[in-house]
Amino acid sequence: MKIYAYDPYVGNEIMREFEVEPVAKLEDLYSQSDYLSLHIPALPDTIASVGYDLISLMPRGGTLLNTARKEVIHEAELKQVLADRTDLSYVADVMPDSYEELIVAYPGRVYATPKKMGAETAEANENSGRAAAKQIVDFFATSNTTFQVN
Length: 150
Fold this sequence. Notes:
- This protein is α/β, with parallel strands linked by helices.
- The protein folds into two domains: 33-116, NAD(P)-binding Rossmann-like Domain (Rossmann fold, 3-Layer(aba) Sandwich); 119-150.
- Helices cover 37% and strands 13% of the residues.
- The protein has six helices and six strands.
- Helix 1 (12-17) links the parallel strand 1 (4-5) and strand 2.
- The radius of gyration is 19 Å and the shape is globular.
């Protein structure tokens, strides 16, 4: 399997060090990837940035995996590309707003989980536990109530 990546902030030499082939343009990433996994934050310039023009570039039988945030997908354009390209699939670890509509319209081609699963790793849970412990220690040491719930 060849792994391609597009990242305007990570140098090509670093990608190649990890046996990842950098691509020059975002469009190249979509057109060369049978399986494309998104790992981008939901920022003003990325919200609804993944739409028809990019997804339709994917090769026949392609699958877009949204492991980022649902906001980065332009849902109306996702629906349109799924209607136009019956060979494409969409998988997400976060439920799109129109999930019920999508699974009815495109059975076997759209899958999603009801809650974000990216933070459900052993490492993420360990980091959460450490952060909570530090906050408790900080409270007793300095009376810091920054993270107080009630």
